[in-house]
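writing this on my phone so excuse typos. first protein, seq and then structure
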Amino acid sequence: MADTPANPDTTYLALDASPKRIGFAVSYGRLAFGRGYLHRQKLQNDVAAVQAKMQQEEATEVVMGLPLRTDGLPSKQAQRVRALGHALRQAGVTVHYQDERFTTISADEDLKGRFRAKGELDEASAVRILQLFLED
């Protein structure tokens, strides 16, 4: 469902944007690696934090997980994700969207049986989102 194919020479920063946190992942070639999370604030602060993370990771484009319903239609959360994507685009960031259905469930399965801090699931979901984008 990616809007454009991934370029293996581009470093992407993936975002799993939940109402409370944003999980991060970064690409190296065709592989995705977790890069932590942040607690969300105001939209303007979130945009600045994403841009700072992009600079830190030397990422040039963003991949955002788009939460669709099982029937493929956008969820309420998808509208919030698109609002962040729109704000990032206004700030000059190239933004791609990736269908993120079931990524949280899948990431949760991977983390079962071990303690996890709040936000670790968001980071693991960002890794899944980015890996799906890279494989599309």
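second protein below, same order as before
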Amino acid sequence: MTDERARHFRRLRRLRRSARRWSVLAGGLGGAAAVLTPYAGLGLPDAAWAGAAGSAIAVAAWRWIDLRALAAVPAPPALDPAEAAARSRARLVAAVERLPVGPGVLAEVRRVRSRLALRGTTAAEAWARLDRAALTLAGMTGRLTGLAEPAVREATAADRSLRDLAERVASVERALRLAPAEARAALAEAHGTLVAQLDAGVSAYERLVVAAAGYVAEDARPTTEHHAAARLTEATDLLHGVAAALAELRTAGPPLRTP
């Protein structure tokens, strides 16, 4: 979103510069027409000078009128500093996303920021495990096709749900430190339940990643020798055969001449 106050003042500056340029141009053309127009009457070149001067004077007058009208309009209120900072961040993020490596860089920044926000809480370790598993699965996503595609979609949904659960665990844990003694027992019980759910969910996610790795390994395993290895074996045998033939030709000597 554009800052309306900044845009208002930019329009004022542009109009002021335009009005000054046209005023200078009108003064120059008007002076030239006054000097070059003969007293005996106007010819065709003199009419051109006078017409250009009149047009420049009219445009300059319109520019000054527009400038006075815009200057009379109250400027939009200044943005709140927090809102201005948020808009600046949004523009920066949009600019980075347009770069070829922008989405990956932003994802890494968000991941690091989220991990730092959970530092010092019980959820930090589970978050780190989930991060490692998610990165491993992301490296295999391109090979998880066909029957494995539903599992990838389930993993994506589970990743979002587990990260939300980790943030809840951290929030409850921070509130537990501030809770009075009479409310601490119930809050601690709820916190323990959330931690157990988070640990179970991350463990299940890790098992899914291991299963995905097994799928990728079995999908790439051929029933016989790998085609690349087979081609290399054939090329090696061919080179050995050519080398042996050349060696035989060298040791055979020159051919015998017939009388």
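The chain is about 80% helix and 0% strand. thats all i got for now
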